[in-house]
């Protein structure tokens, strides 16, 4: 129990100031590191994603998981992204690839 507390307290200390600021864009809650495409493909295969299934990606970043799920696996993919710049980037890419019917990103 004490070991868990020591792991959780530093996380709270990092998150609390960002939440208190009232401006989510003023300070990021977590860094963004894009997952390599090969890893994304392996994750989706390992998860057994099938044609027509619904898939959700929380913290979807640039949308690469959502896009690959819709493009290669023909899934109905939805991403949730809080960062407005990443939301716009991923939404623009989805539109440019013509995947609007099968892929979407929610900003929030």
Number of strands: 3
- Shape designation: globular
- Amount of beta strand: 5-15%
Distance between the termini: 33 Å
Mean pLDDT metric: 83
What is the share of helical residues? 40-55%
Please list the strands of the largest sheet in the order they lie side by side.
Answer: 1-2-3
Q: How many helices? A: 4
The major sheet is characterized as: 3 strands, parallel
Q: From the helix content, strand content and strand pairing, which structural class follows?
A: alpha/beta
Helix-strand string: HHEHEHE
Q: Round the Cα radius of gyration to an integer and report it.
A: 16 Å
- Low-pLDDT residue intervals, each spanning 5 or more residues: 1-24
Explain what this protein looks like in three dimensions.
This protein is an alpha/beta fold. Helix content is 46%, strand content 15%. It contains four helices and three strands. It has helices at 2-20, 37-46, 64-71, 84-96, and strands at 54-58, 76-81, 103-107. A three-stranded parallel beta sheet has the order 1-2-3, covered by helices on one side. α2 packs across α3. It is globular, with a radius of gyration of 16 Å. The model is unreliable at 1-24 (pLDDT under 50).
């Amino acid at each position: 129990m004490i070991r868990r507390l020591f792991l959780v307290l530093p996380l709270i200390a990092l998150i609390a100031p960002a939440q208190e600021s009232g401006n989510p864009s003023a300070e990021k809650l977590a860094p963004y590191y894009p997952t390599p495409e090969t890893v994304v493909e392996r994750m989706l295969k390992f998860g057994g994603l099938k044609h027509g299934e619904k898939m959700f990606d929380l913290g979807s970043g640039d949308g690469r998981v959502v896009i690959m799920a819709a493009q290669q696996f023909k899934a109905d993919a939805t991403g949730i992204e809080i960062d407005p710049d990443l939301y716009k980037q991923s939404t623009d890419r989805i539109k440019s690839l013509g995947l609007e019917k099968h892929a979407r990103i929610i900003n929030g």
